[in-house]
């Protein structure tokens, strides 16, 4: 199984090396067998006697992250879809993409995606699942941006990445919470602890984080906005990622976790609500689109909403129908995307307003489209699989029960909304089909003269349509071999439903009839009520919210940042000092650190006081002096004063050093500032001055308080005695300070010299290197 | 006495900060010098003042001033000297290249 | 054997002095620097391996027992950081010749470089607060030398601000050490750790600890103390920016990590709670900065800040998971920041501009650069299975365990915005139509790309091969949380 998952990735890496043959053979042919073999591999598990398979490889055991794959019914269904449709899409793309394009890139991205998607549906380890999940987003980003010289492609790629990665990060938070609560990273073990999870006080967060992950990925309202823009990707990609597989990852996630989450009524409420709203909104918006792929994109959104809602219902019928519809949707939507791509390829446009009457030019495509659209519309015919699952969906909307006013209102509204959504689905399906293939042929509007596509290009949609019909005619065959196993996995118990065409005169039947009748009416009168779209959504689209947000993020962040990154040293200093001052003061007060109990101080003597007073006055004088020579001399006075204090305080070495250093410093000051302009009387505004004074005084006072408190809080004797006792006997020196410097703490001194060395080099470099005067 | 010295160090610190907040390069550099004086004085004061003889071993004397802070401050003084000299030259070069000693005119508008 | 632990600190100092003797002989300087750094890297790797398998090595300088001499402590944390430093340094030495002009190179670039490495390694390994100050000064003076290298007008202007900020925070450092000495009577880490528990006036100690935190926070570029960073990292040469971005702020965050896990853990309710708040703002404002500009180098520079926020978050949470996360993230961030600055330097050469609005389609001519940059962006945003992911899982787990939901959500949002800021560069600069001003010097761009490729590969290994690394990080975190190992190995009690 692990080989099956990683084979595409392996080939993705190899593809760049295959490109040497690309002159002779289309790269697609070389790698076509990969997904097909994977498909065959998974096909062998299909059958009534399917047993789940497990295979595990250690990856980072110390973090409990492993590549453990668990193939149950649900995973099997998805794995078959991924590899099966993958095969068809590669075949299709061989004819869709021109030899001259950068095919290597295309197939590399596509195969990375294939591995990622297989990994998502097979991983039992939540972190591995998450890793694969992010890679589906990334490969989708690269595929949408495949024609990156197009502005719209770049826009769509970024949008899809931001929204799906947002969801991915949210999912990450959710699964980390799950691991915290359960102490395991295996989904199967989590399912076993479902009640622990639901009872945990983390549960609301878990639910919210996981839902956000699933909703963004599966394009649920209001996060659906990325999907229409993702249609900038080449059509094979749209058929594959953005209809059959990747967008179903969110569905998969919910299905996978539903045995855990469904224990909570909020799960029902949120999933049903968002799902049904997405269904209605998606189908409603689809009618309005003029781009073939746009219609299909909104249709996908709507269908995903329907599946999501069914997962929310959580009843056995609903879950069964959800799984069944995943399969059905993949078949008819995949084929429709491919047909749309063929139409685009052969006529040069996807604008339905320019299309029409293609029936005679493209009879095979036309036939395929009939089956696809009618199945999507849920037309009650026994050879269309779409009808079966839709009928079950109607059934499922009728049997929910819940308590609480909101929940009851939702339960009551579900069937109505389901019918409304389905009516619009019917309308856009008809519009898509008739608008393209019947009506007036507008030759002058088409960039190319249409003709039927090559046979091999028609083969993939044909196979899918064959699937539509086979499932329609022999649903039980698929049921026993595949669907029921998947439904079992989602339901968490035996979930055996019969699929049959005629249910009798049950409510679901009347709902279907209503959909068809009202759908036809609305389709025929479409031009009359289209005005509604200027009101709804009108200006209120979430696209605008996204665009606004992106723009605000860029301009807003620029505004915020330039507002404080002014380049003014003083301003930075003010901000920094204020922050340090405020927080330190806060801590001082909160911890009650002030300690004014003066103990054990040296006596005060007059000579020290005089020196101290001179220094204090000098220090303050620096502020008021405006002569550069004077200020340098005053600095000198302070330095020498310090040296004298060192003498008083029994530190002869310090005094000596200070004396020398101060002298050199003053000379340096003189040298450097001789050429600089004289000091000017400051003309700063009063407020600025006030701030400066407040900060300096405040900071000085704060340090004073802290210093005194620290002094008074002496808790230990210094380690000094050791030096005093051992300087002579152990280190052989009489001057303890010197001994400490050169011996006890020799490293300090070594690197002190290193600092001087560095400073000297830097000064030399600054003076000697005069490269670009003016410029730069 | 320690309290007074702490006060003096705080005054040096405060005056230094005030100078740091000015526009002209010279004042700013003076500010850093004052601040470093303040810091050194804090260090010596914090280790208690005038306890015992200067830390030079003399027979018969048992009480000495704490030699460790003195050694550390000495290191700090030398380092501060190195940095200050660098700063002075940097200030000089900045002035000669940019033709101004006013930091407010040295904001730079290339944020963007 | 134990004394070898000095070598990563002392040998580069010697190398620095040697390099200062023949700055004008460029070929010789380059060869000397390259060979020396490769040898030193191998040696450090061997030492690190030794420490990780056999436990902490402590050497008392001059043989004076702690706390009287200076202890150099090679524990797991210090050693892996020193090793990472050397790896990045070596990459930088190979990168430098293609990006520096000859004059810059000949004015002691290599001498400053080795001095910087020496200071950084020393700061990572010292076990003494005052000695930490000295090593800070060493690395700062080297960084001053590097930042003014070239003497551009703008360069000096921004250097001035950089230097002043650092001088001020150094002085505050001395003051904080003075206060700590007053209360505890020592500057040795291990002894401080022992004594802090018994201080009766804990309030003032906490206050002083916060001052010390701010000293480190200025260097680490934590909100609201990072104003000096963006422009001063943009103006110097790309290789200098890479060294700064990868090493300097990390020394600050390392110091916070060390001091606030070993010493000042007596009142985490106050100190570490402040860290959590500051971490949130650091992440947010940093990433806002990254989105605010079209200067590609500035985008990368701003991205330093949220990463620091992530690490601070782990320290603030102060659980074993979170600390392990911070350590992992620290390693990861050093490597990836180095890589990104290298790559962005290559991009600027390739595109001939720093302005995102004036570049487009670079990937068509330089596919390797484009794809490596893309992968590096994903790594930076913490996408699995790369190195950023491992740290992120741990940090988020720590945050969620402590029920800091706001913190976690902000961390996730800033990750997303980091990705956005990087994708802006990728989409606008690399994708799109090929512009005319794109460089034709393929050889130079290739030389500039390769060091980035190497670092990105290491970063990928740190993620995919986490099993080889994480157990060590876990035991490091374990040791940081349980301080006895450090204390007893230094004080030998």
TrEMBL record, chain A:
Please tell me whether the keyword Transmembrane helix is annotated for this protein: yes
The answer to keyword Membrane applying to this record is yes
Q: Which GO terms are recorded in the biological process aspect for this UniProt protein?
A: proton transmembrane transport; sodium ion transport
Look up and give the membrane topology term.
Answer: Multi-pass membrane protein
- Principal localization reads membrane
Pfam families per the record? MbhD, MbhE, Proton_antipo_M, Proton_antipo_N
Coiled coil feature spans: none
Residues annotated as transmembrane: 6-21, 28-47, 67-94, 106-123, 129-149, 161-182, 202-227, 239-255, 267-287, 294-313, 319-343, 355-379, 409-435, 456-474, 500-524, 569-589, 609-625, 630-649, 655-674, 686-711, 749-767
Chain ranges of the NADH-Ubiquinone oxidoreductase (complex I) chain 5 N-terminal domain:
60-107
Q: Where in the cell is it found?
A: Cell membrane; Membrane
Query: Keywords on this record?
Result: Antiport, Cell membrane, Hydrogen ion transport, Ion transport, Membrane, Sodium, Sodium transport, Transmembrane, Transmembrane helix, Transport
Report the domain of life of the source organism. Bacteria
Q: Which InterPro entries match?
A: CPA3_Na-H_Antiporter_A, MrpA/MnhA1/PhaAB, MrpA_C/MbhD, MrpA_C/MbhE, ND/Mrp_TM, Proton_antipo_N
Which residues does the UniProt record annotate as the domain MrpA C-terminal/MbhE?
Answer: 691-769
Could you cite one Gene Ontology molecular function of this protein? antiporter activity
A single Gene Ontology CC term: plasma membrane
- The NADH:quinone oxidoreductase/Mrp antiporter transmembrane domain covers which part of the protein? 123-398
Q: What's the family?
A: Belongs to the CPA3 antiporters (TC 2.A.63) subunit A family.
Its protein name is Na(+)/H(+) antiporter subunit A
Organism expressing this protein natively? Alkalibacillus haloalkaliphilus
Automatic annotation (TrEMBL), chain B:
Q: Where are the coiled-coil regions?
A: none
Protein name, UniProt field: Na(+)/H(+) antiporter subunit C
Q: Where in the cell is it found?
A: Cell membrane
Where is the organism placed in the taxonomic lineage, from the top?
A: Bacteria, Bacillati, Bacillota, Bacilli, Bacillales
Q: What is its main location?
A: membrane
The coding gene here is mrpC
Please verify whether the record's keywords include Membrane: yes
The portions of this protein that span the membrane are 6-21, 28-49, 69-92
- Report the GO terms under cellular component: plasma membrane
* Domain of life, source organism: Bacteria
InterPro entries per record: CPA3_antiporter_subunitC, NUOK/Mnh_C1-like
Which Pfam families does the UniProt record give? Oxidored_q2 (PF00420)
Family classification: Belongs to the CPA3 antiporters (TC 2.A.63) subunit C family.
The UniProt keywords, alphabetically, are:
Cell membrane, Membrane, Transmembrane, Transmembrane helix
What membrane topology does the UniProt entry give? Answer: Multi-pass membrane protein
UniProtKB/TrEMBL annotation, chain C:
Q: Does the keyword Cell membrane apply?
A: yes
Q: In what way does this protein cross or attach to the membrane?
A: Multi-pass membrane protein
InterPro entries with a match to the protein in the record? CPA3_Na-H_Antiporter_D, NADH_UbQ_OxRdtase, ND/Mrp_TM
Ranges that cross the membrane: 6-23, 35-52, 72-95, 107-126, 132-150, 162-183, 203-227, 239-264, 270-291, 298-318, 338-356, 368-386, 406-427, 448-470
What's one GO MF term for it? NADH dehydrogenase (ubiquinone) activity
Q: Does the keyword Cell membrane apply?
A: yes
Q: Which domain of life is it from?
A: Bacteria
Keyword entries, A-Z: Antiport, Cell membrane, Membrane, Transmembrane, Transmembrane helix, Transport
Its Gene Ontology cellular component terms are: plasma membrane
Q: Which family does it belong to?
A: Belongs to the CPA3 antiporters (TC 2.A.63) subunit D family.
Subcellular location, principal: membrane
- Domain NADH:quinone oxidoreductase/Mrp antiporter transmembrane stretches: 127-417
Q: What is this protein called?
A: Na(+)/H(+) antiporter subunit D
């Amino acid at each position: 199984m692990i080989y099956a998952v990683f084979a595409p990735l392996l080939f993705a890496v190899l593809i760049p090396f295959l490109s040497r043959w690309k002159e002779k053979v289309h790269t697609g042919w070389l790698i076509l067998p990969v997904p097909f073999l994977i498909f065959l591999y998974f096909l062998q598990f299909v059958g009534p006697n399917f047993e789940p398979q497990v295979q595990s490889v250690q990856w980072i055991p110390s973090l409990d992250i492993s590549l453990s794959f668990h193939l149950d019914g649900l995973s099997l269904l998805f794995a078959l879809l991924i590899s099966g449709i993958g095969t068809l899409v590669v075949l299709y793309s061989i004819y869709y993409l021109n030899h001259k394009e950068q095919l290597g890139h295309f197939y590399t991205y596509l195969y990375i995606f294939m591995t990622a998607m297989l990994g998502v549906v097979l991983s039992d380890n939540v972190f591995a699942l998450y890793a694969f999940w992010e890679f589906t987003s990334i490969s989708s980003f690269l595929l949408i941006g495949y024609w990156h010289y197009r502005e719209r492609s770049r826009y769509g790629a970024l949008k899809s990445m931001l929204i799906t990665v947002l969801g991915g990060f949210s999912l990450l938070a959710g699964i980390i919470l799950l691991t915290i609560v359960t102490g395991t990273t295996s989904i199967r073990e989590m399912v076993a602890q479902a009640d622990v999870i639901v009872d945990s006080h983390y549960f609301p967060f878990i639910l919210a984080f996981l839902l956000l992950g699933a909703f963004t990925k599966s394009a649920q309202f209001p996060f659906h906005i990325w999907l229409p823009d993702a249609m900038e990707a080449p059509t094979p990609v749209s058929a594959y990622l953005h209809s059959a597989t990747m967008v179903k990852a969110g569905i998969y996630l919910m299905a996978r976790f539903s045995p855990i989450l469904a224990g909570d009524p909020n799960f029902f409420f949120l999933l049903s609500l968002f799902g049904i709203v997405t269904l209605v909104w998606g189908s409603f918006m689809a009618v309005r689109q003029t781009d073939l792929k746009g219609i299909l994109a909104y249709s996908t959104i709507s269908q995903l909403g329907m599946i999501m809602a069914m997962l929310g219902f959580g009843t056995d019928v609903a879950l069964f129908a959800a799984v069944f519809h995943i399969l059905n949707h993949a078949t008819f939507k995949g084929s429709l995307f491919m047909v749309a791509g063929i139409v685009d390829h052969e006529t040069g446009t996807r604008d339905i307003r320019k299309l029409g009457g293609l029936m005679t030019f493209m009879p095979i495509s036309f036939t395929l489209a009939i089956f696809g659209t009618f199945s999507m519309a849920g037309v009650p015919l026994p050879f269309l699989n779409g009808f079966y699952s839709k009928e079950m969906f109607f059934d499922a909307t009728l049997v929910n029960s819940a308590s609480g006013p909101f929940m009851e209102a939702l339960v009551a509204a579900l069937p109505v909304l389901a019918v409304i959504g389905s009516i619009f689905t019917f309308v856009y399906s008809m519009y898509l089909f008739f608008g393209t293939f019947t009506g007036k042929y507008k030759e002058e509007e088409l960039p190319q003269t249409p003709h039927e596509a090559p046979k091999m290009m028609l083969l993939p949609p044909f196979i899918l349509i064959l699937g539509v019909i086979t499932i329609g005619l022999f649903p039980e065959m698929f049921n026993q071999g595949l669907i029921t196993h998947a439904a079992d996995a989602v339901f968490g118990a035996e979930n055996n439903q019969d699929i049959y065409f005629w249910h009798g005169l049950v409510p679901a039947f009347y709902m279907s009839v209503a959909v068809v009748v009202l759908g036809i009416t609305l389709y025929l009168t479409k031009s009359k009520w289209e005005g509604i779209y200027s009101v709804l959504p009108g200006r209120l689209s979430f696209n605008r919210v996204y665009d606004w947000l992106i723009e605000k993020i860029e301009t807003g962040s620029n505004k915020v940042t330039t507002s404080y990154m002014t380049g003014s040293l003083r301003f930075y200093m003010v901000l920094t000092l204020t922050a340090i001052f405020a927080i330190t003061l806060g801590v001082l007060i909160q911890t009650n650190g002030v300690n004014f109990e003066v103990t054990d101080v040296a006596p005060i003597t007059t000579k020290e006081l005089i020196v101290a007073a001179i220094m204090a006055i000098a220090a303050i004088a620096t502020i008021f002096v405006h002569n550069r020579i004077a200020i340098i001399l005053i600095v000198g006075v302070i330095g020498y004063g310090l040296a004298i204090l060192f003498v008083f305080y029994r530190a002869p070495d310090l005094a000596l050093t200070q004396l020398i250093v101060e002298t050199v410093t003053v000379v340096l000051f003189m040298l450097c500032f001789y050429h600089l302009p004289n000091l000017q009387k400051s003309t700063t505004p009063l407020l600025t001055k006030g701030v400066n004074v407040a900060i300096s005084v405040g900071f000085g006072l704060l340090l004073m308080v802290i210093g005194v408190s620290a002094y008074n809080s002496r808790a230990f004797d210094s380690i000094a005695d050791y030096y005093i006792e051992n300087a002579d006997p152990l280190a052989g020196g009489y001057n303890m300070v010197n001994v400490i410097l050169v011996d006890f703490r020799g490293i300090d001194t070594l690197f002190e010299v290193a600092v001087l060395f560095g400073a000297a080099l830097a000064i030399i470099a600054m003076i000697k290197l005069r490269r670009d005067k003016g410029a730069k | 006495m320690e309290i007074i010295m702490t006060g003096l160090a705080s005054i040096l610190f405060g005056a230094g900060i005030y100078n740091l907040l000015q526009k002209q390069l010279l004042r700013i550099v003076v500010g850093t010098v004052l601040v470093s004086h303040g810091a050194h004085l804090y260090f010596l004061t914090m280790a208690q003042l005038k306890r015992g003889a200067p830390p030079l071993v003399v027979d018969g004397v048992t009480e000495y001033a704490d030699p460790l802070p003195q050694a550390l401050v000495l290191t700090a003084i030398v380092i501060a000297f190195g940095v200050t000299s660098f700063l002075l030259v940097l200030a000089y070069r900045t002035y000669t290249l940019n033709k101004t000693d006013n930091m407010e005119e040295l904001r730079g508008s290339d944020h963007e | 054997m134990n004394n070898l632990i000095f070598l990563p600190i002392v040998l580069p100092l010697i190398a620095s002095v040697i390099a200062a003797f023949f700055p004008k002989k460029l070929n010789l300087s380059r060869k000397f620097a390259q060979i020396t750094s490769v040898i030193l890297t191998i040696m450090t790797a061997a030492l690190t391996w030794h420490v990780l398998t056999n436990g902490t090595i402590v050497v008392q300088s001059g043989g004076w027992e702690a706390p009287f001499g200076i202890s150099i402590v090679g524990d797991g944390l210090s050693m892996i950081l020193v090793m990472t430093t050397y790896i990045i340094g070596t990459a930088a030495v190979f990168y430098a010749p293609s990006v520096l002009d000859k004059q810059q190179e000949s004015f002691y670039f290599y001498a400053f470089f080795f001095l910087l490495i020496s200071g950084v390694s020393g700061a990572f390994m010292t076990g003494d607060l005052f000695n930490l100050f000295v090593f800070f000064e060493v690395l700062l003076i080297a960084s001053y030398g590097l930042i003014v290298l070239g003497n551009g007008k703008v360069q000096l202007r921004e250097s001035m601000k950089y230097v002043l900020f650092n001088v001020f925070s150094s002085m505050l450092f001395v003051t904080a050490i003075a206060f700590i000495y007053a209360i505890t009577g020592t500057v040795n880490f291990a002894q401080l750790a022992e004594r802090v528990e018994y201080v009766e006036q804990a309030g003032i100690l906490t206050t002083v600890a916060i001052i010390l935190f701010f000293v480190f926070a200025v260097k680490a570029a934590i909100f609201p103390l990072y104003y000096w960073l963006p422009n001063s990292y943009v103006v110097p040469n790309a290789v200098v920016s890479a060294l700064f971005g990868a090493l300097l702020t990390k020394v600050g965050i390392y110091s916070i990590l060390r001091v606030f896990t070993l010493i000042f853990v007596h009142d985490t309710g106050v100190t570490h709670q402040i860290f959590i708040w500051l971490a949130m703002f650091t992440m947010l404002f940093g990433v806002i900065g990254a989105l605010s500009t079209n200067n590609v180098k500035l985008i990368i520079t701003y991205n330093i800040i949220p990463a620091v926020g992530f690490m601070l978050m782990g320290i603030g949470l102060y659980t074993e998971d979170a600390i392990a996360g911070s350590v992992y993230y620290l390693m990861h961030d050093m490597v990836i920041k180095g890589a990104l600055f290298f790559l962005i330097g290559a991009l600027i050469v390739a595109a001939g501009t720093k302005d995102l609005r004036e570049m487009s389609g670079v990937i068509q001519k330089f596919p390797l650069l484009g794809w490596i940059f893309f992968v590096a962006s994903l790594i930076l945003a913490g996408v699995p299975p790369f190195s950023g992911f491992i740290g992120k899982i741990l940090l988020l787990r720590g945050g969620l365990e402590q029920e800091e939901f706001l913190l976690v959500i902000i961390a996730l949002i800033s990750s997303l915005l980091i990705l956005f800021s990087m994708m802006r560069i990728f989409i606008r600069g690399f994708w799109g139509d090929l512009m005319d001003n794109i460089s034709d010097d393929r050889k130079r761009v290739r030389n500039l790309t390769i060091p980035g490729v190497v670092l990105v590969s290491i970063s990928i290994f740190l993620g995919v091969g986490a099993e080889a690394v994480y157990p060590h990080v876990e035991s490091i975190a374990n040791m940081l949380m349980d301080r006895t190992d450090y204390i007893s190995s230094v004080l030998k009690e």
